[in-house]
Amino acid sequence: MAHPLFRVIDTGLRSGRKNIAFDQAMIDAHQCGEIPDTIRFIHFKPVALLGRHQALSQEIKKQACLMQGIEIGRRITGGGAIYLDEGQLGWALVMRRSTLNLGDLGNTAKMICEAAAAGLSTLGIEARFRPRNDIEVEGRKISGTGGFFDGDTLIYQGTVLVDLNKEKMFSALNVAKAKLERKSLDSAADRVTCLRALLADQTPDMQSLESALIDGFTRHLGITARWGKVRDVEERRASTLYDEEIGTDDFVEEIDDPARKTDVLCGTCISAGGTINAFVRLEGASNERIREVLLTGDFFVTPPRIIYDLEASLRRVSLGEIQAHILAFFETANAGMLSVAPADFAKAIDNALGPVDIHLAHFNAATRFSKPA
């Protein structure tokens, strides 16, 4: 039986926002049958990239980025904020969900990360998949990954740290103290490594690294990979998406520091699937039901719009019915989740609400909630 054929492309050095616009362009083009299953290699100008559901001011040091000429962008995938520049190589697989039949998002992450780790290991390191979505060497992260399904199209992508300026990385990102304590680390820098630190003067060039990853994908996913060209339809779609949405400040700033609103109740749930932050406003004569809720964090749920559907469905739900409502929502939502569970979202909201009477002493009903409709 012939192995599934994947086109391989390298889209060259681009800004972060333009790279994300190209991601979405590939998804749209693939769904329309305009491009085949594809492996893409990605190169970044300096950028701090938010996960799709993250609050900008809580994750990124905006003033530091401005002073250093670091662009701020927002991904179309979930997960945490990351810093990227010419010292990292991005990779992405865009394919029919049915091409490899990898199953749910958790198993898809495992299979693709194991393939990428196998390719990296041919360079003289021992790379391994670390659930839920990392590739690490000697306990330190060398590649973060994430993805989602949109209909029958899957995008799954990651970055490989080739050379790393840790000072610049952490000058751009806010690293939560609780996240470090949870991993028993003295500093965020201890959590990551790069090929330069591991291989010194034996560090491969980008072309050799791409070849190693292709080798891992072909051998462990059972595919055939052939170099091809970027198509005009991809560039046209990417340009439109950049101009109208992904390249705009409105898209990047869509979620921005809702905790600063004095009428917003805040709660967090930390689980195996990541951190979920809930920002809640109440309504009713005795504040007995939800007016609005915003869910942010570094979790992975597919497709991303599921979170917006959940937020909308929670409006006017009585406080005593929140958990049952969320469980019922996910039973019919056809959502893919990576380690995170429906009960975790309910817990984050519950933590925001209690004790409600203390929070409500500072409630200011005249203040507008910050998330756009």
The profile of the biggest β sheet is: 8 strands, mixed
Percent strand: 25-35%
Q: Rg to the nearest angstrom?
A: 21 Å
Which structural class best describes the helix and strand composition? alpha+beta
Q: Helical region count?
A: 15
CATH topology title of the largest domain: BirA Bifunctional Protein, domain 2
Describe the structure.
The protein has 373 residues and is an alpha+beta fold. The chain folds into two domains: 248 residues, Bira Bifunctional Protein, Domain 2 (BirA Bifunctional Protein, domain 2), CATH 3.30.930; 103 residues, CO dehydrogenase flavoprotein, C-terminal domain (Enolase-like, domain 1), CATH 3.30.390. The chain has 15 helices and 16 strands. An eight-stranded mixed β-sheet has the order 7-8-9-10-6-2-1-11, with helices on both faces. Strands 4-3-5 form a three-stranded mixed β-sheet, with helices on both faces. Strands 12-13-14 form a three-stranded antiparallel β-sheet. A hairpin with a 3-residue loop joins strand 7 and strand 8. Helix 1 packs across helix 10. The longest helix has 17 residues. The chain is globular and about 65 Å long.
Task: Looking at this protein, list some descriptive labels.
37% helix; globular; Enolase-like, domain 1; alpha+beta; BirA Bifunctional Protein, domain 2; 8-stranded mixed beta sheet; 16 strands; single chain; 3-stranded mixed beta sheet; 373 residues; 15 helices; 2 domains; disordered C terminus
